[in-house]
Amino acid sequence: MSDTALLALRPARSAHATIGPAMRVGGQRVHYVKNGAAASYCRLGARETFLLAAMDGERTLADIGTAYEREFGVPLSTGGMQKILQILGSRGLLALPGTAPAVPPAAPLPRLAVRGWGEVYLRVADPGRLLDAIVRRLGWIDGAVATWCIVLAIGLCEAYALARHAALWDTIQVSLRHPSALLIAVFAGITYAGALVHELAHGTMCVRYGGRVNDMGLMFRYLMLFPYCKLDDLVVLPDARARKVVVLAGVTANLLLLLPFGVIDACLGGADFLKQLCAWMLVFYNLSVLFNLLPFLRFDGYMLLSIARGRPELKEEAFKELRLMLPRARRVRPRAAPANWPLLAYGLGYALVTAAAVGWALFRWVRWSVDTGLPWLAPAPLLLVLALSLKAGKARAAARPVPANP
What we know:
Elements: H1 3-8, E1 17-25, E2 28-35, E3 40-45, H2 46-54, H3 61-72, H4 78-90, E4 112-115, E5 119-123, H5 127-138, H6 144-163, H7 165-177, H8 181-208, E6 216-221, E7 224-229, H9 240-256, H10 259-267, H11 273-291, H12 300-308, H13 314-325, H14 327-332, H15 341-371, H16 380-399
Antiparallel strand pairs: 1-2, 2-3, 4-5, 5-6, 6-7
Helix pairs in contact: 2-3, 5-8, 7-11, 8-9, 8-11, 9-12, 10-11, 13-15
């Protein structure tokens, strides 16, 4: 194709291409772009995103090149235009015939899948249909009035639990002195139902704000069975408030589950089964939900902070800053830019909290195994961590590019 013919082209974005908001990865401004037809995502730099956004089917490549030069101060050569057309076309983001073969449509995910070391996924056949039905019935729930009512109700429930923490703990102590299998079973059942509600809330609000959920169901991993909902569209939702609401939806739904238990506890006296269940919910379940808001573990608090800061790889960037501060790293490669102290502080906090959490869990496990006369179970978590570390190391080694022969 001649340069004249190339500059006369009027490329258009695919109707399935969705450009996400600007974020920062590795110190660079990037945008995540979704190909809805193939349910695939890619990450583009600021310049590539500018060009993709300008391809509206009306402007020629000559016009787009002029706008590019005004924006970035450098001209875009015809060779560069051909290259960007090939890149965007190969990812199915253009509706221009002849640029590159379109990405094939995404095949339906299998209902049952087994991966790696005993990872089993049992997926909902059509999560979009289920979540669309929920949105049609509960779409009003994020309105201004409903939002303030929810915040007020949760605040009152938390204030009640805090004001009565001593009495609630006394009730729990009574239940622990006389353990009830029924109480434990009912509490475990409610907790698991809360996990299901948590994931449904995430997916519902994602769909409510224009996203899609393609993968949701039950996952068996690390000898545990728990629900999951993949929020891949979170990085392409244009509204910052919408992204925060999607992340907070799960915790909000769980805290709303506490409301009836707070009312029942306030109305009942004594220390019967129902009173003990309310105490367990208002203390143990409540703390587990609030723990989910910690920004130092890969829970909702981490997602909220990374989305709010526009850094989807917040932990990785923070750990990279930490490594650059090590004497060995500074000797090998001096810093080209000043230290990012907020990232350093976050990385240090993340490392300390993770080490404390893992250490406490290992201590409790060893103590339990010794107290129950099963000391041979004590090294099991260490062996599991070692096996997972070896697996992660092999995966990194396999992903590392092999240097070409000179």
